[in-house]
Amino acid sequence: MARAFVSVGSNIDPETNVRAALLRLSKETDLRAISTIYLTEPLGRQGQPPFYNCVIEIETPLPPAELKFGVLRNIEAGLGRRRSDDKFAPRTIDLDLILYDDLVMTTPELTLPDPEILERPFLAIALSEIAPGLVLPGSQTGIGEAAAKLSRTGMQPLRTYTDRIRKEIRL
Q: Domains of the chain by range and CATH?
């Protein structure tokens, strides 16, 4: 079994879609942890609704590409995600594989670890909550250290919503 981390985000009916995605993930993987879910401002384009973002830890026997394209993309499609060339378009759900064990890889379809972890507070801070001692594969960077240097400005913790989902999934 591999230990993997997936970022979860939505800014189209996010309360419903994040919950639905997490419930589906809990049925298709061994969901081990859910970070705090944060309300965050959208990146790259003003005028969009805010996002709900979190990071989850799973255990899976699937290799990375099969996890990404066979599970994560299927859940996205099932929740109405329509991909376009616009990286910053609003979305019903966004499920990104950001870490997979100690794997370091770059292919046209997948880069691990995700290079945006250290640039995006909603990734690094959420990841540090559920794996504070983690060292990013291929580097000497501790996620707890990296997260401590990032600003939490624009990140509103949704504690009641997070607690409700954790209880529903029984974490």
A: 2-115+155-166 (3.30.70.560)
Return the SS3 of 49: coil
**Which tens digits make up the pLDDT trace of 53-99?**
999 999 999 999 999 999 999 999 999 888 777 776 788 999 999 99
Q: What does the alpha-carbon distance between residue 69 and residue 123 come to, in Å, rounded to a whole number?
A: 21
What are the catalytic residues? 81, 91, 94, 96
In tens, the pLDDT along 98-109 reads 999 999 999 999
C-alpha–C-alpha distance, residues 120 and 106, integer Å: 19
| 105: phi then psi, degrees, rounded to nearest 5 | -155, 150
Q: Using an 8 Å Cβ cutoff, are 120 and 94 in contact?
A: no
Residues near 28 by beta carbon (within 8 Å), at least 6 away in sequence = 71, 75
For residue 34, what is the enclosing H or E element? strand 30-34
Measured at the alpha carbon of residue 153, what is the angle toward residues 151 and 158, in degrees to the nearest 5? 115
